[in-house]
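Box 3.1 A note on notation
Throughout this textbook, protein chains are presented in two layers. The first layer is the amino acid sequence; the second is a token string describing backbone geometry. Keep the layers aligned when reading.
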Amino acid sequence: MIRAIAFDDYIQIHLEDGKKIVARSTMKTILQKLPPSEFKRAHRSFIVPLKKIKPVYRDTVQIESFTVPLSHTYKKEVLENLNI
């Protein structure tokens, strides 16, 4: 999984092979099913895999060619889990 994006009660999951899956679920429910040491919420609309994060900028993280916003609410936890 590359990233999950929220659309109301639907999420879009982007896989490593470029495929996308749309599922009826909340971000909270999906996050609870993922290993907490590997996935963190970066923004109210994004869950990211920690090992795929390359550069971290001021308020964004880069995952391959996609830039994900890093909100103030989740920034500290993401950075702590990246040992930054």
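The mean pLDDT is 88. The beta strands are 3-7, 10-14, 20-24, 39-43, 46-49, 53-56, 60-63, 66-69.
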